[in-house]
Amino acid sequence: MIRFFERYEAETSQFFDEVISKEGSPRPHYDKMLHRFSQFSVDDIKARREIVNIFFRNQGITFTVYGENEGVERLFPFDLIPRVVPAHEWQTIEKGLMQRITALNAFLHDIYHGQKILKERIIPAELILGSQHFRREFIGVNPPLGIYIHVTGSDIIRDGKGNYMVLEDNLRTPSGVSYMLQNRQAMKRAFPVLFDKYKIRPIENYPQELLRTLQEISPVSRREPNVVLLTPGIYNSAYFEHSFLARQMGIELTEGKDLVVNNNKVYTRTTRGLEQVDVIYRRVDDAYLDPLVFRPDSKLGVAGLVNAYRKGNVTLANAIGCGVADDKVIYSFVPKIIKYYLGEDPILENVPTWLASNPSDLKYILANLGSLVVKAANESGGYGMLIGPESTIEQQENFAEMIVANPRNYIAQPTISLSRHPSFFNDTELWGCHIDLRPYVLYGKTVTIVPGGLTRVALKRGSLVVNSSQGGGSKDTWVVDE
């Protein structure tokens, strides 16, 4: 029998290891998990891997990789060793996220109304007005309850000292929650005994909490507001998630062709005729929502939808224009945003960030491309990014040209030594792989945060990129009562 963790190299001198302390001893909240895994042979692990794979295949749990010759559908990569977060650490994350979401929502209300934060030069107005996600058409529009960001997935990392920090905010159409839910079901099937040894906080009620949040923001008072999910369709990389969430909430999964606007009200076509829609959980980007207002070539949206929204006859979650708050340039101002609207210091710090639009920052960025991580302001999924220490001179020169040509579109950050967590390779070896955490925040009449989230893991050895499209995978995340 192989005792996997006896051969695991934590490398705690370089990285914060989630499982092993700098002294080389297991962290207390991992004791039971380590003991259980020490009892497994290679065959035991392979058998449990097969249980998980069968479950994922039967559930159709896939994601799409574009541009690959072998096809676009893949089984979502999953690591068998769960991440364990003790309750006292989760309490800090939870408080920090509630603070952050409250401040960002106040910021969105302000920039689409009085714009006080711009007038007082807390944030340079040109950075907001020049953001591709700032929608001038929605100045003065009042969403129900004054809430713009109903579903958020902020990405959290730990630095070399183990401090939790926010890497970025995803406020438009954050994805991944279906994998969080299915990971939990897969682990229960593969490791039932291990579940009995921990007091793990449940996450299974997320779809019901999401539906409750969506119903709370209905523009009309009905006992059961009509909520639908709007998807771009089967070729979207997150289509599995769209169909899964609609099924779990018991609502209609719709595409643009299924909806029609009449007299500034939105209806869905059904076998019973047209039925009015009150709330749309949209997984379609702003630019494709309404060909009469945004891209005229869009086949994904609904003609007239924006007028219905402006008239207050339908609610969109998340609100149009909220993407300005997850622009990576605006991210650097979130500590100031928290201080301005709440009068508080941030509970969760930002990663230090340089703005290429600032001449002194630009000079520093260009002189240090080999050691920095450079990101395009509005890209996601690991695209539009240069990881300096892993880049070639040619790549750095190409990025330098793009930065100089459009400095507003780029930021740079130090290469953070993301915390590491043991992960299986070929079910026989354990590697320390870099991870982050995407908790999901729901904002209706109250703020709800599901305990845990999606732990994403860079399954390529040494890689810092956790996105599934770039070779990443995920783990189940356990918030445990101590």
Automatic annotation (TrEMBL):
PANTHER family: BLR5612 PROTEIN, SLL1039 PROTEIN. It holds the Pfam family CP_ATPgrasp_2. Residues 82-458 form the Circularly permuted ATP-grasp type domain. It comes from the Bacteria. It comes from Pelodictyon phaeoclathratiforme (strain DSM 5477 / BU-1). This is Circularly permuted ATP-grasp type 2 domain-containing protein. InterPro entries: ATP-dep_Glu-Cys_Ligase-2, CP_ATPgrasp_2, UCP005522.
